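FORM 7B: Structural annotation worksheet

SECTION A. Query
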Amino acid sequence: MEKKPRGNGRVIVCIALILVIFAGFVLRLFDWQIVHGEEYRALSKASTSYTETSTATRGEILDVNGAALAVNETVYTIVLNKIYVGKDNTNDIIRLLIGLMDGCGEAYIDALPISVGEGGYTLDKGSAGDVAYIESEAMLGSEGLTADEIMAGLTERYDAEDIDDAAVRRAVVSVRYNMEKKGYSYSQVYVFAEDVSSDAVAVVSERTQTIPSVEIRLKARRVIKNGTLIPHILGVVGALSEEEYEAHRSDGYQLDDTIGKFGIEAAMESYLRGQAGEKTIVKDADGNIVSEEETVAAIPGNTIYLTIDSRIQAVANYSLQRNIRLARAAGLAQVATAKSNNAKQQSRYGEDCVAGGAVMLDLRDFSVIAAASAPNYDISKYYDVDYSAWLYSNEDAPMFSRVFNGAFSPGSAYKPCVALAALQEGIITASTSINCTKHYDYYENYVVNCMHNHGYLSLNTAMAQSCNYYFAEVGRRTGITTMYLYAEKFGLGVKTGVEIDESAGVLAGRDSTTWYEGNTVQAAIGQSDNTFTPLQMATYVATVANNGVRYRTHLVREIRNYERDETVLYNDPEDPEVLSDAGLSKKNLNTVKKAMRSVITEGTAVDCAGTYPIALAGKTGTAENAGSDHVTFVCYAPYDKPEVAVAVTIEHGSKGRFAQLTAMDMLDAYFYGKTLAEEKRSPRSMSE
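SECTION B. Predicted structure
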């Protein structure tokens, strides 16, 4: 059979392919030169493109029920955008804006640490840090300058010599100085004024219509809804320091960004901040805007739901502060009586009581329902100059969180831990009897005194009566190493895992720089070097109630996106994170729980906490220190089916009932829905 030639077909296919490609080029050229010719001719002249970064809206912080704690409100800002500056008339624009703002009675950002008066220029008090920056090599490069010399240098630097009026010159130089410090550039706008009134916005908009570099923008301002509710937990947002900028610039932070400074605002910064957007602006060689395009959309930060219940927290704050005042008043009255009677002891009755901490945990997952620290303060006024000066100079340190960072000797509240360690290790049994003769002198240089001569008693009675003699002997038999190993499992001397900054406390023996055998008996009654935070004490009693299993204590319930319709993270209370298990037998747990119940029904708390209508199990504690004794009360409730754990420590409170009254108020808020208004109307009596 004769084969047909195939060469002609291949040639035809190649020619057709070439024609198709050629036609594509022709169509593309037609589009470039005819259809979009003018547009692409303009682009061909373009010399530079700029990327402008926009700040994302910060996420909000709510309580467990969605009540607002730190949220955003929209305000007007006036910014200068270098991209739209046609010629170098920055000083003229600034002078215009300053005049407009002064005319409207509005403030603009004035950061120069120099004032002007009839006598000339003077350095502002406390401005050493700023002056050092101005004198650095980054700016004037000369040290020890006077205010006049600094102004002369900056005036020359910013071409402001033609401004005759000293006050106006200083104002312009101040803005230019801050622009440079904040990194004003083609990619970084400068915020000239924040939180501007609508009237001022109208005036500025009208007078700057022909000045494209002046922009009115909307910005989310951080608003704290109740500054005294959880100031030690919430924290604040503030401008980046130079150190923070260097540390975070690789994460995309700009010089004029804000960042969480402490508390939840800092701890959850990565969730709250969001992602900045980007806009690309193209300018031709003549400085004309050729195109603008949003290349990256800004993504707002996430919403944080805390585990805090605002209603219970408000009651805790009020009750703690009230009982501190009552403790101090009772102490002062007792001091007056002692002095009038010429008593040998005329102090240490609670007259020095000013502070304390109180915590309530949810036993499902050790989440923090309430955490009150006193003295308290208003974090919404944190950036108010006068208020801030008061905060930092106040000798009672209201900004110091007694709950998370204050470490106090627990006193006898430590005894359930010692009892569980001794029982689990087989050192004692529930029926082990020890004869209390009031003065425990096994170590002659470390004598432990008891309040009474109890005689022979077993664990239950020793716990109820808080017998120091009994627990000193049990501690000696158990040994310091065994005691602190169990204490660690209960969350004492270790961080609880809470999201914000906290103290690890101090465990006697383990953390002590020196140790003698006699120190062990002091540690066993909650003294020696033992110091724990109220949060650790609440975690400890919660672990006892939870049969020796310790969960991670935490403040965050849930994280959602800004619109709150998508869950980013959820701490399920039914699926808590386990940090340790003390491995306690049910028998030993029940023995100690029963003894803690006896504290309430027939022991040291019977006259106060013993009156509470819901069955409690707990332990009182009084710890010696410089000044009046610290008092602590820990408990969980209900006894038969625990839901919450509470720890209250009152510094120099002297009398344990004040800590118990605070705990009972918090329990009222949890079990009976007590509100702050109800607490104010009908506070608990001191006689309870």
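SECTION C. Observations
The chain has a mean pLDDT of 90. DSSP finds 22 helices and 25 strands in the chain.

SECTION D. Sign-off
Analyst initials: ____
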